[in-house]
């Protein structure tokens, strides 16, 4: 049997995106000693990536490059597979190799050069190197200003760098090139949200939903904006069509909290309880539930939740523990509390002076009187010292914002 026949048929299956069948035929061609195996390894490596077999994809693409290291597109494809494997640093190096080889062999191919710059920009962006990524996306746009996702990706870099006006400008350019894509409209809304322009943000989230009624990030953020504008019923109406997630429970619970009725407080409690059930080691969820329990005048329950938030700590997460490890940790926590009580008894006058200083600055930071009452109750709890009050105070200051970055939807466009 002629291996060339298998190889040719595999290319047809590849074009039809029947990647598993293509893999079978490329393998047959290689098993039968295809005379020029580079293209078979190259294409099979791409097929493996499409079916999420990354180890095999990386192996094939590296083998292809061992046969011909001067092939720019093979370096690009290896970079794409490395990105799928989240090895962005090595991927960036492969995209650089692709650019260098392309400059040597096909300097006039501006579209391909733009694509490689964009791919490297995405890898750099994933590593948090936003300024370098911005340069790559700009280079891509300079060579090909007809691709909307180049503008979109640069807009995401601008957003990450808090250059929100520039981000909106890039997102708007993407919309002009592809007005049907909801995510571009959505990100313009995010830009206006970051600029505190609530009405304009809502307008663009609505535009996104006109393009795609199932674009839930836009509906979620529209709910956040209605909440910020104190239109609580509209916020709840928007949240009603959002899939149930931890972020939804937290955001909706905050709306109920601000409605200031006992019935709403109970609904807020239910939502924060659900958030805890999804992520039971998140300190902020206990803080939120403690806040509403205080509003419901369930003070002892509120103190338990605030103390739980303190135990979980600033990061809000604890590693998964075996029962024996939990018991040991509980004993250690109790021992530390006992030592704290002893220290508090020995230094009560110092405690009171520090506490007075901390609480004296609360009103100047715009924190309401009912929250001050929470802090005073916490201050009298066993094992809670001034440093703990500072931790809670930091949570409260952050709490004055909203979950503006949750549920934003697509953070970046696809590699190509």
Task: Describe this structure as you would to a colleague.
Residues 315-351 are annotated as: Disordered. Pfam families: TPR_16 (PF13432). Residues 326-351 have a biased composition (Basic and acidic residues). TPR repeats lie at residues 3-36, 38-71, 72-105, 148-181, 182-215. This is UDP-N-acetylglucosamine--peptide N-acetylglucosaminyltransferase SPINDLY. By secondary structure, the protein is mainly alpha-helical. It has a domain at 363-402. The chain is built from 22 helices and no strands. The protein has helices at 3-15, 19-31, 38-50, 54-67, 72-84, 88-105, 110-126, 130-143, 148-160, 164-177, 182-194, 198-211, 216-228, 232-239, 246-259, 262-278, 283-295, 299-312, 323-346, 348-360, 369-379, 386-399. Helix 12 (198-211) packs antiparallel against helix 13 (216-228). 39% of the residues are buried.
Anisotropy-based shape: elongated
Helix count from the secondary structure assignment:
22
* DSSP summary, beta strand count: 0
The radius of gyration is 28 Å
Unreliable parts? 315-355, 400-411
Question: What is the end-to-end distance?
Answer: 36 Å
Bin the strand percentage.
Answer: under 5%
Mean pLDDT: 85
Give the helices and strands as they follow along the chain.
HHHHHHHHHHHHHHHHHHHHHH
Helix content: over 70%
Helix and strand content put the structural class at mainly alpha
What summary fits the major beta sheet? none
């Amino acid at each position: 049997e002629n291996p060339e026949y298998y190889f040719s048929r595999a290319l047809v299956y590849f074009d039809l995106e029947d990647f598993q069948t293509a893999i079978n035929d490329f393998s047959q061609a290689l098993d039968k000693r295809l005379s020029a195996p580079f293209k078979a390894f190259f294409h099979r490596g791409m097929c493996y990536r499409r079916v999420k077999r990354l180890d095999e994809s990386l192996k094939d693409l590296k083998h292809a490059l061992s046969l011909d290291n001067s092939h720019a597109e093979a370096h690009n494809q290896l970079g794409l597979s490395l990105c799928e494997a989240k090895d962005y640093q090595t991927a960036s190096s492969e995209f650089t190799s692709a650019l260098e080889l392309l400059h040597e062999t096909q300097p006039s191919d501006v579209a391909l050069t733009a694509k490689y710059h964009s791919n490297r920009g995405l890898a750099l962006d994933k590593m948090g190197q936003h300024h370098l990524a911005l340069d790559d996306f700009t280079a891509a746009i300079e060579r090909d200003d007809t691709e909307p996702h180049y503008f979109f990706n640069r807009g995401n870099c601008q957003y990450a760098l808090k250059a929100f006006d520039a981000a909106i400008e890039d997102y708007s350019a993407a919309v002009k090139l592809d007005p049907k894509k909801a995510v571009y409209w959505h990100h313009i809304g995010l830009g206006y949200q970051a600029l505190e322009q609530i009405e304009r943000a809502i307008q663009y989230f609505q535009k996104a939903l006109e393009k795609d009624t199932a674009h839930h990030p836009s509906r979620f953020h529209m709910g956040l904006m209605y909440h910020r504008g104190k239109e609580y019923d509209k916020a709840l109406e928007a949240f009603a069509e959002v899939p149930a997630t931890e972020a939804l429970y937290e955001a909706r619970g905050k709306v109920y909290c601000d409605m200031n009725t006992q019935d709403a407080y109970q609904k807020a409690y239910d939502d924060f309880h659900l958030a805890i059930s999804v992520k039971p080691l998140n300190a902020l969820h206990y803080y939120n539930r403690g806040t509403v329990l205080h509003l419901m005048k369930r003070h002892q329950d509120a103190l338990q939740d605030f103390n739980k938030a303190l135990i979980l700590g600033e990061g809000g997460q604890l590693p998964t523990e075996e029962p024996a490890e939990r018991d040991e940790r509980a004993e250690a926590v109790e021992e530390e509390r006992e030592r704290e009580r002893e220290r508090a008894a020995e230094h009560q006058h110092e405690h009171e002076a520090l506490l007075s200083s901390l609480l004296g600055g609360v009103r100047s930071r715009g924190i309401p009187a009912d929250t001050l009452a929470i802090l005073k109750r916490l201050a009298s709890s066993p094992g809670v010292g001034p440093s703990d009050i500072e931790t809670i105070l930091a949570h409260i200051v952050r709490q004055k914002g909203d979950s503006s970055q949750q549920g934003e939807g697509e953070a970046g466009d696809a590699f190509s």
